[in-house]
Write a structure and sequence with these properties.
Layout (H helix, E strand, L loop, with lengths): L1 E14 L3 E8 L3 E7 L18 E7 L6 E11 L2 H4 L2 H17 L7 H15 L5 H15 L10 E2 L2 E2 L9 H8 L14 H18 L7 H10 L1
Parallel strand pairs: 3-5
Antiparallel strand pairs: 1-2, 1-4, 2-3, 4-5, 6-7
Helix pairs in contact: 2-4, 2-7, 3-4, 4-6, 5-6
Length: about 230
């Protein structure tokens, strides 16, 4: 079956002398792995398409029995120059990419989450947006779309006492706004230092409770150092 789909590249690495293997979050099929033959050859120029964060269009022959699919055509859909030229933006974006890769299962489509991911990267690419607020927005969307939407009235999960989302002056109001998934409404949110700590702790507690695969997020460690 021939499939044409947009995709966000999550990870890529060399294979053989000239090829690449790329793991992508696709709109149609969720997370999938592909082999791109000859992508690293001097004449190809395809390696740039398969850098993490790239938003690309793919055409490939899907076979259910395959772990690696062969791409027949590929092209850029859009690029993020303001992300790629800013250390803080690229650190946030790569943390989102790694988080997505660690939490999605193979071939489990989440078209709504894919749309949120593209919207967040477009917002990151704008110069004036609050990066931390957008990061929270994506983390909460990830929880929601994968079946773990936080209940702000629930103070504990089995084996875990959650941080109180009401501890900041506006923390609950901000969380409620973020969870609506209306990205245009969060551009001008004012976040006080106490709210920042409360919201970060609350979201992280939920994420790490539901996804033990997030324990070794290298990009998140880098991001923490940048934000100090």
């Amino acid at each position: 079956m021939i499939i044409q789909t947009s995709a966000i590249v999550l990870k890529s690495f060399p294979y053989g002398d000239t090829s690449l293997i790329a793991r992508c979050f696709t709109l149609e099929k969720g997370k999938m792995s592909f082999i791109i033959k000859g992508a690293r050859s001097k004449k190809s120029g395809s390696a740039a398409l398969f850098q993490p964060m790239s938003h690309i269009e793919l055409i490939f022959n899907y076979k259910e029995s395959r772990n690696l699919h062969i791409i027949s055509k590929r092209s850029f859909i859009e690029t993020w120059p303001n992300i790629q030229n800013d250390l803080k933006r690229i650190s946030f974006a790569l943390s989102i990419i790694e988080m997505t890769d660690k939490t999605l299962s193979d071939e489990d489509p989440h078209s709504g989450l894919f749309k949120v991911l593209c919207d967040v990267f477009r917002a990151f690419n704008k110069e004036k947006n609050n990066l931390n607020t957008l990061f929270w927005y994506y983390e909460l969307a990830l929880l929601s779309h994968l079946g773990f939407q936080p209940d702000l009235d629930q103070r504990e999960l089995p084996g875990l006492m959650l941080p109180d989302p009401n501890d900041g002056p506006k923390s609950r109001t901000i969380l409620e706004l973020l969870m609506r998934e209306e990205i245009a409404s969060i551009e001008d949110i004012e976040v006080l230092p106490k709210d920042n700590q409360v919201i970060s702790d609350y979201i992280r507690a939920n994420l790490f409770y539901h996804f033990d695969t997030l324990g070794q997020l290298k990009s998140l460690d880098v991001l923490k150092q940048i934000l100090l």
